[in-house]
Design a protein that fits this description.
Layout: H1 12-34, H2 37-44, H3 48-55, H4 58-78, H5 87-104, H6 106-117, H7 127-149, H8 159-175, H9 177-184, H10 191-209
Helix pairs in contact: 1-2, 1-4, 1-6, 4-6, 4-7, 5-6, 5-7, 5-8, 5-10, 7-8, 8-10
Length: 211
């Protein structure tokens, strides 16, 4: 009892996901430069040889983690059923989802920041991410077009710009909560402040799109 399964009996997909999950924590905490493969191996229960076998090295593992982080938010967005909702309800739900995702997955913000420091070179070659991003923007464009056709939305809204704004309006607030708290003089992460912020985010985006 308690013995680890021999390597041949391991589920490769499960092992890879365990490594990705452990690596996500380590990279979010220490960044690419400070992250240690030894720590990732210890946390995941895999050995370093398995990590190198599946991912090739620390740089490649970091690339896989960042890609997996983006896949996470895009895949959950697809489950929202936005195209089945009234346009105004769909946009509101998207704003709420994006905010809640950031709150529930703080490592996403940290990983995106880290990848920006590396000028996005780890995801630059990911066709899968570009495909998912295009699908996301196309979904928002369809919602906007339906809203414009019904007279609910303005007709001049750029879907890509709206997607960027929905992401930024929550991302900036949470990413700068410490400096913002000092400069603005209140706790950005308090329950009251978070509730006020999502209310403001929804109102801001809806005013942008409504006719």
């Amino acid at each position: 009892m308690g013995e680890k399964l021999p390597f041949r009996a391991r589920n490769p997909d499960n092992t890879k996901q365990l490594i990705l999950d452990a690596a996500k924590i380590e990279f979010a905490k220490a960044g690419l430069g400070g992250a240690r493969v030894d720590k990732i191996a210890e946390t995941s229960g895999a050995n370093k040889g398995m990590i190198y076998h599946y991912f090739g090295g620390k740089e490649e593992l970091f690339a896989a983690v960042v890609e997996d982080a983006y896949l996470g938010i895009r895949s959950q967005e697809r489950l929202l059923g936005l195209l089945d909702l009234k346009p105004s309800e769909a946009i509101k739900k998207l704003v709420e989802f994006t905010w809640e995702y950031y709150l529930e997955n703080p490592e996403f913000i940290t990983l995106v920041n880290s990848e920006n420091l590396h000028e996005a070179r780890h995801i630059a070659g990911s066709k899968q991410l570009r495909k998912l991003q295009k699908e996301y923007v196309d979904t928002v464009r369809e919602i906007l077009e339906r809203g414009a056709a019904s007279g609910e939305f303005r007709k001049d809204i750029d879907a890509a710009q709206l997607c960027i704004t929905i992401a930024a309006i929550g991302f900036y607030y949470l990413n700068n909560r410490h400096t913002g708290g000092v400069l603005f003089g209140f706790n950005f992460a308090s329950r009251e402040a978070l509730a006020a912020r999502i209310k403001f985010n929804i109102e801001t985006i809806m005013r942008m799109v409504m006719n």
